[in-house]
């Protein structure tokens, strides 16, 4: 055999062998079925906070057009509050299965064995980016960079104290925002589209408005500052009109930013290649017009869990399609797998079902189903026509969408069936929720440089106080004694040397405060040598009096390097010398990995 022929045979053999190597299903994305995906989620926006749903108090033309150019999911349900909805949307599983049982101090975290839709897309070759409010864990591997996102810009907490150029983070590093946060997050999303326009991308754009504090630029506020509201809450005397005005102004700002995203897709001729999804994470954060429905944020009634939801995929999903069948946040995981053509299998229970056949108007017999809402001990069940509320009352939502009349006596068989479904869900799903959280806060994951330990996740002892009862964006103050301390339950994941940076404020008379940071077998001493006493900020931007904490410009102090040993332990911050009245106000510590032990 001559040399040339031998080479040809060898090449053909290698090509054949390579072609037979199995590839994980989630790694395969057909070029013909790899649409881009943009998922926009708002925060505390009710079903009724849009002109497309009938609210004449405001005008949301871009979101309205998104609905007209695609599908409206007429009866779409999420959880009553923020972090549970985010977990359900990302995993396709009810939040009790995910370990999410609250909204702060670690309770908002998804268990580490959960798989997000972003991870599946990432494995399939998608570029993935998240820009905004994460609210499903801060410390890596709870961090979005560990949950399927190549790029993250925003904040990991449940709410933020100021929306104008605040402290944010970029892939774990602390940075300063640029202007109003919703505009800023949108800028980053648009840049991501520009950067990855030639390849499939997934953008998760979880906006943090109209969640309080009620802040919005003048451009939108001026329209609403003195506006008479034509449409009011079903019990008008319960409505705080000033709060409603601020929320509606924030919704119009959201609409403007949605328009910017759609315009970018249009400019790049990507509209037919991109699925755009719009929804909210729960009901409205106030008593305002919401289609006459009962309930708001935090409630398992219709008004607390019904979300305005639209899906546009020009050229594939028919314009003006209205899907009447009930659906929920848990359905996005299987639905988007179907729409992208990704073959993904798992042994884990996926609670959602693919609604792709409804969106593509395929001829299918759609089965009846129940959707479950849970929060704060309350369970509610929704089927296509009825809702069984947390008090055991049954409502026919076709004839009584406001939940005024209990019809349990009129429909005993339906009542019995839904009660049994509720008990079964409680037994098989809610039972997975462990309200006694045994999880520590990971520190120093080998794959990530940064670990942030905020005041939110700490426990204060003595006279130290939180700046507000809502922990998410709080800091510690009133630190007057050397016997007082702040601790964190941490699990050091990799032994090594860490640079420690502490974010503080300190009045001039308190300069000279000495402190130490201790962790099993390690101690780092520090001293405040420079005053930094900025004013409280945030209230100057508020359109309505806030309930959550004001904020400050906290100064970073590089304390030094500290050797940490692996394992679960208590990390403590304690003042050893307080020359003035108080030690400091404390916001967070950042541990930056310098090296790891061999």
Topology, element by element:
Blueprint lengths: L2 H17 L16 E8 L17 H8 L2 E3 L2 E2 L4 H10 L3 H4 L18 H7 L3 E7 L17 E5 L11 E4 L2 E4 L4 H15 L5 E10 L7 H7 L16 H27 L6 E7 L21 H4 L4 E3 L8 E3 L3 E2 L3 H9 L15 H4 L11 E5 L2 E5 L3 E3 L5 E3 L15 H17 L12 E3 L6 E5 L4 E3 L3 E2 L9 E2 L7 E8 L3 E10 L8 E6 L2 E6 L27 E10 L2 E11 L7 E9 L5
Parallel strand pairs: 1-8, 1-9, 2-11, 3-12, 4-5, 4-8, 17-22
Antiparallel strand pairs: 2-10, 5-6, 6-7, 9-10, 13-14, 14-15, 15-16, 18-28, 19-22, 20-21, 22-27, 23-26, 23-28, 24-25, 24-27
Helix pairs in contact: 6-8, 7-8
Structural commentary:
With about 600 residues, the chain is α+β, with helices and mostly antiparallel strands. The chain folds into 3 domains: about 30-370, Alkaline Phosphatase, subunit A; about 375-430, no CATH class; about 440-595, Galactose-binding domain-like (Jelly Rolls, Sandwich), CATH 2.60.120.260. Helices cover about 20% and strands about 25% of the residues. The protein contains 12 helices and 28 strands. It has a 10-stranded mixed sheet with strand order 7-6-5-4-8-1-9-10-2-11, sandwiched between helices. Strands 17, 19, 22, 24, 25 and 27 form a 6-stranded mixed sheet that branches. Strands 13-14-15-16 form a 4-stranded antiparallel sheet, with helices on one face. Strand 15 and strand 16 (about 395) form a beta hairpin. The chain is globular. The protein starts with a helix and ends in a 5-residue tail after the last strand.
